[in-house]
Fold these 2 entries.
Entry 1:
Amino acid sequence: MAEIRTARTNVRANVRRVPGPCSHWDDLDADFIREVLDLVGDKWSVLIIGTLADGPTRYSELADAIPGISQRMLTLTLKQLRRTGLVDRTAYAEVPPRVEYSLTELGGSLLSTVLALAAWSADHHGEIRRHQAAFDAEG
Amino acid sequence: MAEIRTARTNVRANVRRVPGPCSHWDDLDADFIREVLDLVGDKWSVLIIGTLADGPTRYSELADAIPGISQRMLTLTLKQLRRTGLVDRTAYAEVPPRVEYSLTELGGSLLSTVLALAAWSADHHGEIRRHQAAFDAEG
DNA sequence: CAGTATCCTCATTGATACTG
DNA sequence: CAGTATCAATGAGGATACTG
């Protein structure tokens, strides 16, 4: 995984061979990438982050905005996102209770990056669908 | 979900109104992004893609290069990546058999995008660790 | 060497019920 | 309203054994 190790300097440098053993990342870094990848690959995280991009949102609004999510997973994922520092929670001392979640600056920057991935998806949607169809037609 | 949602048809958006109808994506695209996200978030996909970035690699070399992966998951993930068109398989009619896997151009372009995410991880590693520590110290 | 085929387990998730 | 607690089911993934 040469390129991933050197990604800090070679982000744009595309693939293929890596001349020398000039790694800037150690194994701990590699593990960390996995953590972020797990977070992004999580079933609900990106949906929540994407919803929060519209501005501060209440717990129940999130539940409504993200069809199919259970209270359990909403709570759990929000906790995870807060722990990572991507999301802020603000509770207002009112009756009835009001709690708003919002993206932190860090969360916003991750969203930007994820949107790049989304753009890639959009760009190659057709190509991938064709590959899948061809592959399924005959291995 | 300002950027990701914003559909012309609001199937997924029983949500509140979408502020500005200046979207480039529809709901099918949103679903497709999830597919790509799942792929990237997969436990082994990115590791395999990263390894293949060094050049064509044999099945057994992949198994050695990616500690902890089982034959089953290596085979399964490779199949998935081939189906998506990210990876090519070339079998040489020799004895003993030789099979090489390589990144397609599409796979290379995804790697570039994922590396951007890796760069983000590297950039914000410290900040996230601090958040996590603070969060764990006291909810 | 490069896979398949089976079995099995453990973790993630969803459903349901309850509470400050 | 905004959660927490508990339990059950699904399925991803590992271990092992076998094969073209």
Entry 2:
Amino acid sequence: MNSYRTHHCAELRKSHIGQKVTLSGWVSSRRDHGGLVFVDLRDREGLTQIVLDPHSLPAAHDLRSEFVIRIEGEVVGRPEGTVNLKLSTGEIEIKATQLDVLNRSETPPYPLDEEHVNEDLRLQYRYLDLRRAEMAHNLKLRHRVCKTIRDYLDEQGFLEIETPILFKSTPEGAREYLVPSRANPGLFYALPQSPQQFKQLLMVAGAEKYFQLARCFRDEDLRADRQPEFTQVDLEMSFIEREDIYRLIEGLLQRIWKTSIDHEVKLPLERITFQQAMNSYGTDKPDRRLGMELYDFTETFKASSFKVFASVVAAGGVVKAMNAKGFACATQGQIDHLTEQAKAAGAKGLAWIKAEGGTWKSPIVKFFNDAEKEALTRGLKIEEGDLILFAADQWQPACEVLGKLRLVIAGMLQKMGKLTVPKGVYDFFWVVDFPLIHFDSEAQRYMASHHPFTAPIPEDLSLLEKEPTKVRGQHYDIVLNGVELGGGSIRIHQPEVQKKLFEEVFKIPKEIAETRFGYLIRALGFGAPPHGGIALGLDRLVAILCGAESIRDVIAFPKNARAQDLMTGSPAEVESKQLRELRIQTEIKALAAS
RNA sequence: GGUCGCGUAGCUCAAUUGGUUAGAGCACCGCCCUGUCACGGCGGGGGUUGCGAGUUCGAGCCUCGUCGCGACCGCCA
């Protein structure tokens, strides 16, 4: 025990009454009554009320917010009627006999207990922001989760192995951060988007079970749940099948939820196919808590006199609909907004029906016959006050349009108080049987849906040449409350299969495939074991556990939406000497000079 | 790159149809106060309304531009 503290500020209870204690911390608030001063003393763990008598401790009058002080005193019970039930330490207080100001503080630029402060300011003074109880709690919970992950995976026989941060550019995926090499002028490293290739090489190396809390870097535009650097729980195993991954990760999630928030996750988790997810929710990461499933009416409208629907069906498309329960009150403005959203998602327009005032109000209902109306009423369980929305297109675009509207409408209904997402519900499930390959209309070639190392499902292998988009991959995503928590796959371990995909399916020129992935294919040729793995987004996972809106709230020093650190002022210019050493010239300087 | 929203005191916000000297709470400074916990009372300081143009007799408010921040779309194998 050192001279600063005998206890922390959330520790003392009635049972400590009479003890002489020393506490150190920050002045959270001060209530100066002239002849008596109360201070809420805060440290990482919590608050304790200090009572100071300014007659013996005159410095008590000079205390201000965020001063760092040390207090000696006696734990006393609070007088009758002054107990504060909001504080865990609210039954006691410290009668100070000694006050030392360890450090003064500038007036804080914003009140630390204020909820809705400009995020700029919070980020600029992040060290103050992190003093707030909520942020301190988030950091603690994140630590608890990391510790649980390490303990669990250690028990399961995993080795924590670090992989390089200075890696090589592999422009197949996300845009990368580049790092110039002074020793090799004109050449660049790239920061890894993920340790994907290294973890596969570790399997070839016989590591068998690898994991890492891996920092990953992507130079893409940011979102509330996207940072330029973020952390993945990255792992890979040899001699395993998909079922082994499911079992392992389910156990891990169960343990994390138990140790961090004492919530029981029931196992095994449900599995749905990509096909089912799209069909029922129009997305591969559905938030099933919202209800509002999509239904198919292709058969109903096959021969409809409503030509818009009938012609889509004739062209091999589908007619899908969803019931936005209780949203018949949607204003014209809201309908217009939904139509815009639908168009942005690729629809040509938006057909809708309002069940209102005992009748159906809709621009299209006049084309429907009784059988069609009956099918809709039954299939969508239409009741007074409902809003029905349609999408007619090829299967996937039709699903996606309604999937997007479903989320927009859920947001609107929540604002109106007509839809409440239940709290404390954690809807985990696996999404499986993803298509291995999709056709990218922009690049005019087939692309890997996940990444190019994903193994096909063996029975689909024969389709690879003729109908590549029908091949399913041994890929799996774990979804929680509409958030993609992570994903992974069984990898290709035969070099000839990997080569075939690169060169014949993805049409990556031989030389490029060689320089980009040659070492990996070569490694696979030296007895690579069957292997697979998964990566979980740690920031998102912790954010959900904390109930945080943004992953910025669970990262100690995050960047803003422009990828800047407002506290340190990075990124920043560098000395021209540094650039010369790297043999780098920037266009910006040339532009400024001209 | 695009769409939308926001920008007024240190912080959170207000300011009627475009109308006099831009207000309030908290914070800050001074004085008073022995049971507060959002302590209270009295007094005080604090503003280039993000910036720049324009319209107008007159702009925090309208228009254009610009900068900053945020959300979303694109992007994120």
